[in-house]
Amino acid sequence: MKRLILFLFSLSCLISTSQNLVLNPSFEEFHDCPLEVSLFDQNVTNWTIPNSGTTDYFNSCSEKMAFKNFNGYQNARTGQGYAGIYMHFKNDYREYIQGTLKSTLKKGEKYQVAFYISLAENSRYALKEFGIMMTSEKFNTFKSKVNLNAKLLAKRIPNLKFRPTFNKTFYDSSKDWMEVTFTYTADGFENYFVIGNFNTNADTKKKQTRTSKYEPFSYYYIDDVSIVPLKNLKETIETNAIYTVKNVLFEFDKAELLEVSIIELDKLYEHLKEEFILNIEIYGHTDTIGLEMRNRELSEERAKAVADYLIAKGIDSKRIKYYGFGSTQPISSNETKEGRQLNRRVAFKLIQN
To answer: Which of 158, 194, 217, 269 has the highest CB neighbour count under 10 A?
Structure first.
């Protein structure tokens, strides 16, 4: 059976913990419950900050620094904890998170970098660019609270590399966790990494998402950080196996794709464009709420919406088939809210033609 590379799914679901080189990737290991603000640097195991910003740590164990906090409400994507950083604030104030790797990256090898973000509800601005700075030693500039000019630092400092990542649309969802992911080729010195916005306010592309009583800023929650060798991903996805697409979402009783879905479907499109010998079958599913006739109709409409998007991007319609199964193929109980959410899904299978 042919094995394929496909970077569409939640890495935490498809990749074993041992393959992820990031220590404490979802911020579950900590010293004390974060009762007050700005305890990330002293409190979260294997994570620090590279400047004098006050990066925040949120955990469900706390009343003040839990899922309902000073900048909004968001559940952890996995586990009970996540980080929070100001990506845009007055006078170029910035916050970052600095992570530690289990082992040094190997020169010339490719790695899949991924992390999940959610825009805090009190943010006025949404951004479309995150960056990562790779270093051999922990980076410290504790006298500065402003943005780190990683592009300039990479020119001046050996064993420091900057990798920006640009998204086609703004990361503007305060409800869903959105994936940021890209491929990174190692130089062979990388032991630590820094995530955040390395641009000045003037150079930051932003979109106003809401009117806020607070000063204008952009604040993002971060969870589930991973850096995985691509060679370990090659055996993750198989042809003729069914996989559920993550973050392909619809409004209640509608078949119009939400903005957050585009990120995932663009990855699927890129893969199908490169692997032209593959066809795809798309399957829509619902929970048991409502009439089964409507559920079957809705599930087919949602599968068709995914197919139509791929066709509009340029995939030959002859390579795509779609089906709606309504609520007839549940993967969890329909007696609970969580189970019904799992049953409302779009899945697919890749087939070699």
So the answer is: 194
d(CA 155, CA 152): 5
- Tell me, what DSSP letter sits at residue 124? S
Domain ranges for the chain? 11-230, 239-352
pTM of the shown model:
0.66
- Other C-beta atoms closer than 10 Å to the C-beta of 191 total 16
Rg from Cα positions in the chain: 21
State the Cα–Cα distance between residues 13 and 244, nearest whole angstrom.
11
Superfamily of domain 11-230, CATH level 4: Galactose-binding domain-like (2.60.120.260)
pLDDT at 139: 95
Q: CA-to-CA distance for 339 and 102, rounded, in angstroms? A: 35
Tell me the sheet residues that pair with 16. Answer: none
Q: Which of 7, 16, 75 is nearest to 245 (CA)?
A: 7
Bridging pattern class, strands 345-352 and 242-244: antiparallel
Average pLDDT over residues 14-27: 74
- Rounded to whole angstroms, the Cα distance separating 127 from 216 reads 13
For residues 82 and 76, what is the distance between their CA atoms, to the nearest angstrom?
A: 6
Are the C-beta atoms of 123 and 219 separated by less than 8 Å?
yes
118-176 pLDDT, tens digit per residue, is 999 999 999 999 999 999 999 998 889 999 999 999 999 999 999 999 888 899 999 88
* Share above pLDDT 90 across residues of the chain, in percent, rounded to a whole number: 61
Rounded distance between C-alpha atoms, residue 310 and residue 261, angstroms:
12
